[in-house]
Amino acid sequence: MKVTFLGTGTSQGVPLIGCDCNVCSSTDNRDNRLRSSIWIQTHETSVVIDSGPDFRYQMLRAGVKKLDAIVYTHGHKDHVAGMDDVRAYNFFTDKPVELYATKETEETLKREFSYVFSGDNYPGIPRVNVTRIDKDKEFIINGLTFIPILVKHMYMDVLGFRIGDFTYITDANYIPPAEIDKIKGSKVLVLNALRHAKHPSHYTLEEAIEVAQHIGATNTYFTHISHQLGKHSDIEHQLPEGIHLSYDGLTLEF
């Protein structure tokens, strides 16, 4: 299995519009962060988690020519806004794209993209099939098993996913003990670490380090990073052993 980070930035991305701080003006490509998303590949399947506003460019940049499914963590705009661009995959395969979402996220998709689900079959609109995720049940996409991990994003329920030895969590500021137990034993954990200052719905860097060390994965990679965290080259060297900052284009192989 191969995992590629398509985007590692927070909801506004990095650089931030109108900002000329040392991160936003950095010439280090690792400081340029599109909205958070990953691409999972095996010999049998190609799956993306979340389709944010940068989805089209992410697919082009990573060369994703085959897409079997999109799995959604939650319905916030920075995770769903690019769904319309699955139309290209419809054109080349002449098949709907499979979407996996909770009831709440499905409702968001139907509200935000009402024309897709209207039944009008207007020429050129995306064709999708939605499979409902039950947070208490694993599901399989072409041989790839996804175990939902329920986390809190302030008051909102958000899903992370464990796929084999890999666990991906974004947009969290609390993980219940029972869900922590599902994660333990992962060789690689991806976890959000927004910035240094306290935030109502995201882990800070210090909080994320504490959670990562409690879970004890061999390697942890932080994502959903804002410009307020600091330059990649500065922060990476300050992290404990086995903990890293992810960056757009980083690829992990299992």
In N-to-C order, the SSE pattern is EEEHEHHEHEEEEEHEHEHEE
For the secondary structure, the number of strands is 14
| Fourth-level CATH superfamily | Ribonuclease Z/Hydroxyacylglutathione hydrolase-like
Shape: globular
Average pLDDT, all residues? 97
CATH architecture: 4-Layer Sandwich
Alpha-carbon distance between the two ends: 5 Å
Largest sheet: 7 strands, mixed
Q: List the domain count as a whole number.
A: 1
Structural class, by secondary structure, is: alpha/beta
Q: Strand sequence of the main sheet, in spatial order?
A: 6-5-4-3-2-1-14
Strand content: 25-35%
> What is the tally of helical segments?
7
Radius of gyration: 17 Å
Could you name the CATH class? Alpha Beta
What is CATH's topology name? Metallo-beta-lactamase, Chain A
The poorly predicted ranges are none
Q: How much helix, percentage-wise, in residues?
A: 10-25%
Tags for this model:
7-stranded mixed beta sheet, 254 residues, 7 helices, alpha/beta, Metallo-beta-lactamase, Chain A
